[in-house]
UniProtKB/TrEMBL annotation:
NCBIfam families cross-referenced by the UniProt entry: portal_lambda
Signal peptide positions on this chain: 1-25
Skewed-composition ranges (Polar residues): 531-542
Residue spans of biased composition, Low complexity class: 11-25
Pfam families with a match to the protein in the record: Phage_portal_2
Protein name: Putative phage portal protein, lambda family
Length: 542
């Protein structure tokens, strides 16, 4: 028996929504009768259909904000400082259970691998252009992903005289990732990325030069065609599985090929708030230049006689003579022509509603950037300790997520490329690497420490967490950007040196802890007795 199927057609859906009965929606948000919602009819497109046609405009506007808007530039720097910071270290943690190793062997293998990885990552030899180390490349990739939506790195095999390693990374501006001319009709190529039928990247089409060079350096005509309209098709992987392209972007929807700037949702508010602030500043500056108006009842003929036959020369001469004497100063006597009077100028600036309006706008912008308002503006003057602590904790949830994203899709791919070279070169022993790639590549990355709001309280809390067993020294050190093994080794060295010199290192620590505990109790006692006028206890501000 043949099975009848019903085909879906977009036109049928559109006609159905246009029927009078479609206005009777079960959800108020889908109502067609509400005057506030009647003109709101967005198109329901795919991820690429919604993003790719607008991506070039979004990227250009995001970069313009980053260049010319101080708040945007500061926000980008805040993201870089808190997500990556000034520290980037590998903590190799191979899965010893899958490899059949002991913990001790796994730790020793990790220590050796970390030391050799530092000889590559902490030098400019990891960069194809020999200008940055891995920390600099990672900060650049993060900035590109936040500002442009994408960051692209091409792993290259470049042997160089005197260099121990041959794997190097070349950063590529995401603008160069675009579909070649003449291949726009192919459905398997989306904005320069070629996919298979399952949605996996097969190859990347990269321009040999940035398309913007045509406007900056005058590459036109045949020269432009020869230099700017040439593409390289780079396979995503080699035949044996080595990655050839690292594409860092945030994939919010299924089928999304490219990323978008982090400020896309609040870009309009960012731009308008900047223009509003600039206009208020210009208006205040213009008003400050005008002190008074000179009013005269003279007829036009008499007024013209005051300036002579050549008004411009007479005006310049008058200005030159009275520049130093006719100023509004204390006890100044200003001579005026007959029939003239001086009236004061009282501008309406500053605008009293300016601060409140900007505060509301900036809070909305901060929420769109997943940053607390205090952190975006670097302003904690109106926050107490509890509020500042809550704001920073909320921010760190976002920062930890971005760190995991950066580790999984950028740093681990780079570490795997280097580790493959080190193993094949005999620098590191890893039997069965290709069969157990995940077990060997498993690692964590240590970024910059988050610091403390109250060092004494947070150090005591960290000690209490370790003592009660809900945390470890490794975790607490990693939160501050340190390796716990190096901390313990350094402590052992210092304790041994102190013992050799007859010093007692425990006594100062005990005295400091006792003093801090006594100070805390004193503060609590004083705070308990400090109340406001309504009988409620006041909270000390940070």
């Amino acid at each position: 028996m043949a099975r009848r199927t019903r085909r879906f057609h977009p036109a049928a859906s559109a006609s159905a929504s246009a029927r009078p009965g479609a206005a009777m929606a079960a959800h108020d948000a889908a109502s067609g009768n509400d005057l506030a919602m009647r003109d709101w009819n967005p198109v329901s497109g795919s991820a690429d259909a919604d993003l790719l046609p607008d991506l070039d405009t979004l990227t250009a506007r995001s970069r313009d904000l980053g260049r010319n808007n101080g708040l945007m530039a500061g926000g980008m720097q805040t993201l870089r400082d808190n997500i990556v910071g000034a520290v980037l270290r590998l903590s190799a943690t191979p899965d010893y259970r899958l490899l059949g190793w002991t913990r001790e062997k796994s730790r020793e293998w990790g220590n050796i691998t970390e030391a050799k990885f530092r000889s590559w990552a902490e030098t400019v030899e990891c960069d194809a252009s020999r200008t940055q180390n891995l920390l600099g490349l990672t900060l650049q990739a993060l900035g590109g992903a936040m500002l442009n939506g994408d960051a692209l790195g091409l792993p290259l095999w470049l042997p160089r005289p005197g260099s121990r390693w041959n794997t190097r990374l070349m950063m590529v501006e995401s603008d160069r990732l675009m579909t070649p001319v003449g291949l726009e009709h192919r459905e398997d190529i989306r904005k320069g990325i070629e996919f298979d039928k399952w949605g996996a990247p097969v190859a990347y089409h990269v321009l040999k030069r940035h398309p913007g060079d045509a406007f900056a350096f005058g590459f036109y005509g045949m020269t432009r065609d020869a230099q700017l309209m040439e593409w390289d098709r780079i396979p995503a992987f080699t035949p044996w599985g080595r990655r050839r392209v690292i594409h860092l972007h945030d994939k919010e929807r299924t089928g999304q090929s490219r990323g978008k700037p982090v400020v896309s949702a609040v870009m309009r508010e960012f731009h308008m708030a900047g223009k509003y602030a600039a206009n208020e500043l210009q208006a205040s500056l213009a008003n400050s230049l005008v002190a008074a108006f000179l009013e005269s009842d003279l007829d036009p003929a008499s007024a013209a006689e005051l300036f002579g036959e050549n008004p411009r020369e007479a005006w310049n001469a008058s200005v030159a003579q009275t520049r130093n004497i006719r100023q509004l100063k204390g006890a100044a006597v200003i001579p005026l022509p007959a029939g003239a009077r001086l009236s004061s100028f009282t501008p309406g600036r500053p605008n009293q509603a300016f601060e409140a309006f900007m505060l509301a706008s900036l809070r909305h912008i901060a929420a769109g950037m997943n940053l607390p308002y205090e952190l975006l503006l670097k302003d904690f003057s109106k926050s107490n300790y509890s509020s500042a602590r809550a704001a920073l904790l909320e921010a760190w949830r976002y920062f930890h997520g971005r760190r995991r994203w950066l580790s999984d899709y950028w740093l681990r791919a780079i570490y795997e490329l280097w580790l493959e070279e080190a193993i094949n070169a005999g620098e590191i022993e890893a039997p069965g690497f290709y069969e157990n790639r995940y077990a060997y590549v498993r690692a964590r990355f240590i970024f910059g420490g988050r610091g403390w709001v109250d060092p004494v309280k947070e150090a005591q809390a960290a000690a209490l967490r370790i003592e009660t067993g809900i945390s470890t020294l490794e975790k607490e050190c990693a939160e501050q950007g340190d390796d716990f093994e190096e901390v313990m080794d350094q402590r052992a060295i210092e304790m041994r040196m102190a013992a050799e010199r007859g010093l007692n290192t425990a006594q100062p620590i005990a005295v400091a802890l006792a003093a801090s505990g006594q100070a805390s109790r004193t503060d609590e006692d004083e705070g308990a007795g400090k109340t406001s006028g309504n009988g409620q206890t006041e909270e000390t501000t940070a």
